[in-house]
Amino acid sequence: MKSGRSAELFDDQARLFEGRAGLPEDCCRAIAKKVIEIGEIKLGDLIVEIGSGTGQIGQWFEAPVRYAGFDLSAGMLNECRRRLENNRVLIQADANASWPIADGVARVIFSSRAV
């Protein structure tokens, strides 16, 4: 399947995605906590999420940790923007192409159910 078609599929289901395939809040918090723990995240470190979706996990990375999420679907990113604080970076990009993050700037790169 071409990535453009994949984006359209997720755009169409973005508003209903969590009701159909979302994770429980305690699961999302636990994933974020483990990413911070395993990555040995320190003050000001950058966490990059590939396939940020609706932001279910990204919302639990709090300042002073920096967070950037990218997703192919504009619809999913719109849902994510509604959930995340303004100081988070969200980028529409294809994980199968060149990544929109410079080499060496992220402390942790992770994905949950997207890669």
What would you note in describing this structure?
- The chain has 115 residues and is α/β, with parallel strands linked by helices.
- It is 35% helix and 16% strand.
- The chain is built from 4 helices and 4 strands.
- It has a 4-stranded parallel beta sheet with strand order 3-2-1-4, covered by helices on one side.
- Strand 2, helix 4 and strand 3 form a beta-alpha-beta unit.
- The longest helix is centred in the first third of the chain and has 14 residues.
- The radius of gyration is 13 Å and the shape is globular.
- It starts with a helix and ends in a 5-residue tail after the last strand.
- The mean pLDDT is 87.
**Major sheet size, sense and barrel closure:** 4 strands, parallel
- Biggest sheet, spatial arrangement of strands: 3-2-1-4
Query: What is the arithmetic mean of pLDDT?
Result: 87
Based on Cα principal axes, name the global outline.
Answer: globular
Alpha carbon gap, first and last residue: 15 Å
Order of helices and strands: HHHEEHEE
Structural class: alpha/beta
The proportion of strand residues reads: 15-25%
Task: Please tally the helical runs, counting DSSP H or I stretches of 4 or more residues.
Answer: 4
Q: What does the radius of gyration come to?
A: 13 Å
Low-confidence stretches: none
Number of strands: 4
Approximately how much helix is present in the residues?
Answer: 25-40%
